[in-house]
Write a structure and sequence with these properties.
single chain; 12 strands; globular; 8-stranded parallel sheet; two-stranded antiparallel sheet; alpha/beta; TIM Barrel; 308 residues
Length: 308
């Protein structure tokens, strides 16, 4: 079947989106994803509240809403070791967040928790890395006991921008409860070539976030997928050629950027989110699948209306 008739991603790969990029309210997050016809959602904040801070009653209601909408939650985007967390900060806060997420993830039906690896705070690179790995090992041990998997994102942190450091961290932690999340668009704002990093870590990636950007580290401008400098299509082809199965989750960052205290996309948030998702579908259909090494088999497996 011609690639231009393909309606979704490859078998074993689904589309999702980080809900609060469409709007703070849960209703808007659900509306945006379901309008795209997708059946997966990634959550960070709901009605302006971080997942770990939601009451168990609120999480129960959230789980019911997702179930009614036919949505599966694919990942909990935590604050653990993120861009606001210093390597010298109180580790007990990260442990407490993970403890809070254990029952909440169980109620929401996900085993993935997004983490980073701490901002430096005056330490040498060697000491920063030693402490980051030590903390991650303790977090992974707790996650493993709870049946969770921590997904380290290529973002802020000791291992954030280096494929070599990511692999070192995985090796030293040595736990099946620590794997990698790859964000296609983080290279531009953090000053590295994301595609080159991906070539080193591709076999360890279990979840993908999609964004794109142009410009440079000093003044990044976030764009529709495929319209910037992040080589989104190349990244997705590389993942497929290495047998990736999982989720491609959009994080447009055009209006919502928590690290810049931008948290409300405004009244057009749903429309912008849907437009972003449609552009990703087009990119996959027209530019990703035709270049995949095993595209012939993929095309034979898909048809119009094929599920994600």
């Amino acid at each position: 079947m011609p690639a231009d008739q393909l309606a979704g991603p490859v078998p074993g790969v689904g589309y999702a989106g980080i809900g609060d990029e469409a709007g703070p309210a849960l209703a808007d997050q659900v509306a945006a994803v379901t309008r795209l016809g997708w059946d997966r959602i990634e959550l960070r904040n709901v009605d302006g509240v971080a997942l770990a801070d939601l009451s168990e009653d609120a999480v129960a209601r959230l789980a019911g809403t997702l179930d009614e909408a036919g949505l599966t939650m694919v990942c909990a985007d935590s604050r653990i070791a993120n861009w606001a967390q210093s390597i010298n900060g109180p580790f007990r806060e990260d442990l407490a967040e993970l403890e809070a997420l254990v029952p909440r993830c169980a109620m929401l039906g996900t085993r993935y928790v997004r983490v980073m690896s701490y901002c430096n705070d005056g330490l040498t690179d060697a000491e920063w890395g030693r402490r980051a790995v030590h903390r991650m090992k303790l977090l992974a041990e707790r996650a493993e006991r709870a049946g969770l998997v921590l997904l380290h994102e290529n973002c802020t942190g000791w291992a954030g921008t280096s494929g070599e450091r990511m692999l070192t961290m995985l090796d030293k932690v040595g736990s099946p409860a620590l794997r990698l999340m790859f964000d296609t668009g983080n290279g531009v704002p953090y000053g590295y070539e994301a595609y080159e990093v991906l070539t080193h870590i591709v076999d360890h990636v279990e979840h993908v976030q999609i964004k794109d950007a142009a410009g440079d580290q000093e003044s990044p401008v976030y764009t529709l997928p495929g319209k910037g400098q992040a080589r989104v299509a190349d990244c997705l082809r590389l993942l497929l050629d290495h047998g990736f199965t999982g989720t491609w989750s959009i994080e447009p960052h055009i209006a919502v950027r928590p690290h810049e205290n931008l948290s409300d996309p405004g009244e057009d948030g749903i429309e912008a989110f849907v437009a972003y998702g449609r552009e990703l579908e087009r990119l996959v259909r027209e530019e990703v699948l035709p270049g995949v090494e095993h595209a012939g088999r993929l095309a034979a497996d898909l048809g119009p209306g094929a599920p994600a």
